[in-house]
Design a protein that fits this description.
The protein is mainly α.
Length: about 280
């Protein structure tokens, strides 16, 4: 009985390892490409769906909270669908391993799905790197779109030069001042709030003087307006920070769920490839 050893899929032997490679890179690449393509299609569909449910009119469209939660859930759905299909293809198209124990086959199929998910994630990050950089750059420069051309071409030392040439009594708009302080104010606010900082006491006092001179407000009203604007800047920055953090958490959750779905689908595809799906499901 011990001499009659049948070399069969799922039984295995104690002999030498088969000469077939344990990784079918062509199957992994095929599953990754399919997963990445489906992700792009679903992302495009999600963008169109998102634009159709939001509205600038009051009382129309979904709320901001609903939109953020819906976006996160949709990212999870995208990861589940694309990763499952990509992992299934990677498991179904891989080379059959003859003379390998069923537990080792199960592990290799799981690894194929995981590697296909990792490959698709890297490929998707490379393809989306340029559009994402453009979107992030556009969002970051949105706060300084009102700056003058001189301000947009400023260097890192212009803030120090502005402080050096600052006047104690800023001229009003009606005094025929040739230098528009808008560029100076933009550089001052940008440098102060860039790294989560705040306007210094001397800078805030100077800004209040400029506001009073330009608007004709009293010094007390100008101080109040400056404080209100600074508070609004902090509030908007904090809201953007929280939204970015929530999006990052949703992305992490979607990636982890996608890895699990790809690995599980690869085992199912591999079992169907070898004709052992019914036996593994029963077990």
């Amino acid at each position: 009985m011990m001499d009659a050893v049948v070399i069969e899929q799922g039984v295995g032997t104690t002999g030498t390892e088969p000469s077939v490679s344990g990784v079918s890179w062509s199957a992994v690449a095929a599953g990754a490409v399919v997963s990445c393509a489906l992700t792009l299609v679903l992302l495009a569909f999600g963008i169109g769906l998102g634009l159709s449910v939001v509205s600038p009119w009051s009382g129309s469209g979904v709320s901001a909270t609903t939109f953020k939660i819906g976006t996160g859930l949709y990212l999870v759905v995208i990861a589940m669908l694309s990763s499952s299909i990509g992992g299934y293809i990677a498991g179904r198209l891989r080379t059959r391993w003859t003379g390998v124990h069923s537990d080792e086959v199960y592990f290799r199929d799981t690894a194929h799905g995981f590697v296909a998910w990792a490959f698709a994630s890297i490929l998707g990050a490379i393809l989306l790197a340029s559009p994402a950089s453009s979107l992030i750059g556009g969002a970051a420069s949105g706060a300084s779109q009102a700056a003058t051309s001189a301000a947009s071409q400023s260097g890192p030392m212009d803030g120090y030069i502005d402080t050096l040439l600052r006047a104690d009594t800023p001229a009003s708009a009606s005094a025929g001042n040739a230098q528009d302080p808008r560029g100076e104010m933009t550089r001052l606010f940008t440098s102060s709030f860039r790294n989560g900082g705040e306007l210094k006491a001397a800078d805030k006092a100077y800004v209040s003087k400029v506001v009073a001179a330009r608007t004709g407000l009293s010094q007390a009203d100008a101080d109040k307006r400056v404080n209100d604007v600074v508070t609004q800047v902090k509030s908007d920055t904090d809201a953007a920070r929280k939204a970015t953090a929530q999006l990052a958490f949703w992305l992490v959750a979607s990636l982890l769920i996608g890895a699990f779905c790809a690995s599980l689908a690869a085992t199912e595809g591999g079992a169907l490839r070898d004709g052992t799906w019914r036996r593994s499901a029963t077990r």
